[in-house]
Amino acid sequence: MAESLLIVDDERDVTDLLVYHLQRAGYKTLTAHDGAVALQKARDHLPALVVLDLMLPGVEGTEVCKRLKADPKTAHIPILMLTAKAEEVDRVLGLELGADDYVTKPFSPREVVLRVKSILRRAQGEAEAVEVLKIGDIVVDRARHEVTVKHKLVELTATEFKLLATLMERRGRVQSRDRLLNDVWGYEGDVDTRTVDTHMRRLREKLGKAADCIETVRGVGYRFTEIA
């Protein structure tokens, strides 16, 4: 059964372009042209992913992202943001609010399709990983797709979950930002490594004091230490 995607942009030529390419890639599509309609359709249809423009009439894209992530019914839905190059502040804010990734306008439709596929692959938890990782107070249960710290559940996005699990699997070894982009996000080549830093900052905030075991290796990347 084809997965359903919600495409949100106030420019109809943009939504038409994305509908064409995403349907060709095998997805079903829904569209919305303002924030209020986007929120309603997300709650009514529970799409597999939302492609969300940040510049929307009425309810802005960042607010749509915030409300979707705050609602238990829609919090699990991955979000791919569309932003203009000049909107770096909004882009970072969107990532901090829980968006999984972004594409800058003007964009290649092929790149959007690849990003969608990559995000959905991560969100499905990669079925082969059915083990429990435990280091210090942090427990990652891949079968349940749950993270606990001192037996308390920590709500992570699919990307944050994959990032934490990857670091824990490779504890003691430094992981460069480029390696993490490739292994966690599925990207190779010229991609902004600040994406890694933004997600890492949000992950650390959610883990609280337990995040002390994630070291920043200046100029290289990150390492999960043996001691939590």
Can you walk through the features of this model?
The chain is 41% helix and 22% strand. By secondary structure, the chain is an alpha/beta fold. It folds into two domains: 4-123, Rossmann fold, CATH 3.40.50; 132-224, Winged helix-like DNA-binding domain superfamily/Winged helix DNA-binding domain (Arc Repressor Mutant, subunit A). The strands form three sheets. It has a five-stranded parallel beta sheet, sandwiched between helices. A four-stranded antiparallel beta sheet has the order 6-7-8-9, with helices on one face. Strand 3 (49-53), helix 3 (61-70) and strand 4 (79-84) form a beta-alpha-beta unit. It is globular.
What are the low-pLDDT stretches, counting only 5+ consecutive residues below 50? 126-130
CATH architecture of the largest domain: 3-Layer(aba) Sandwich
* Class inferred from helices and paired strands: alpha/beta
Order of helices and strands: EHEHEHEHEHEEEEHEHHEE
Extended strand count: 12
Spatial arrangement of strands, main beta sheet: 2-1-3-4-5
